[in-house]
Design a protein that fits this description.
This protein has a single domain (4-157), classed as 3-Layer(aba) Sandwich (Aminopeptidase). 25% of the residues lie in helices and 38% in strands. It is built from four helices and seven strands, in the order E-H-H-E-E-E-H-E-H-E-E. It has helices at residues 19-29, 40-46, 92-106, 122-128, and strands at residues 9-14, 52-59, 62-72, 75-83, 111-117, 132-142, 148-157. A seven-stranded mixed sheet has the order 1-2-3-4-5-7-6, sandwiched between helices. Strand 3 (62-72) and strand 4 form a beta hairpin. The protein is globular and about 40 Å long. The protein binds coenzyme A.
């Protein structure tokens, strides 16, 4: 069995030219049953917008994950984070989230928010980074078959913020 230590994870800032690998990861990472994924037009409309930054992660030199975040003044929202199913549990998600939080600190963000579908395994990643649940939104996600799923809101206060 391979471990995270056997693999090289690198993260870098990207722009709209990364849309093709980002959409490949998006389609593979999100089960359409839950309606969480964005389409290419939604991504293209947001990437490059004010306060938005895109991070792409590579695992052993191949695109494996991405994170899209938006900062407004001293608050930020993690809009999306995803890792290709074939690249999971090698530390790509944690490395991306670490880089997101670094980017937040560089932008003098004090508090980071995110919405996640109730029961999404990603919650284990967020709680490992000390995010706390701060709210619930009923029927926030609409799945492929029209079924509705609740979202939970999480937030993290950045203690090492320099402002
Ligand atoms: C959530 C997600 C980004 C995690 O990516 P990943 O690269 O597998 O995460 P990591 O390997 O860095 O995991 C770090 C830690 O998070 C926790 N974790 C991650 N995925 C987990 C899972 N499916 N079940 C339980 N814990 C999990 C574990 O504590 C893990 O550490 P460990 O592997 O040493 O036990 C990935 O599963 C994914 O893309 N999911 C689909 C997209 C999605 O739902 N995104 C969130 C909403 S935007």
């Amino acid at each position: 069995m391979s471990t995270a230590a056997d693999h090289a994870v690198t993260v870098f800032g990207a722009d709209a030219t990364a849309l093709v690998p980002v959409m490949e990861i998006m389609r593979a990472a999100f089960d359409p049953v839950y309606g969480e994924a964005w389409n290419a037009a939604q991504c293209a409309a947001v990437i490059g917008g004010p306060g938005i930054w895109l991070l792409v992660a590579e695992l052993d030199g191949r695109p494996a994950g991405f994170a899209l975040t938006r900062a407004v003044l001293d608050e930020a929202e993690l809009l999306l984070i995803a890792v290709h199913p074939e690249a999971r549990r090698h530390g790509v998600g944690a490395t991306l989230l670490d880089a997101v939080l670094d980017g937040c600190r560089q932008r003098s963000v004090n508090r980071v928010f995110l919405e996640v579908r109730a029961h999404n395994p990603a919650i284990a990643l967020y709680t490992a980074f000390n995010f706390s649940k701060v709210g619930e939104r009923c029927n926030y996600y609409r799945g492929a078959d029209g079924k509705l799923y609740d979202a939970h809101s999480y937030s993290l206060t950045l203690k090492n913020s320099e402002n």
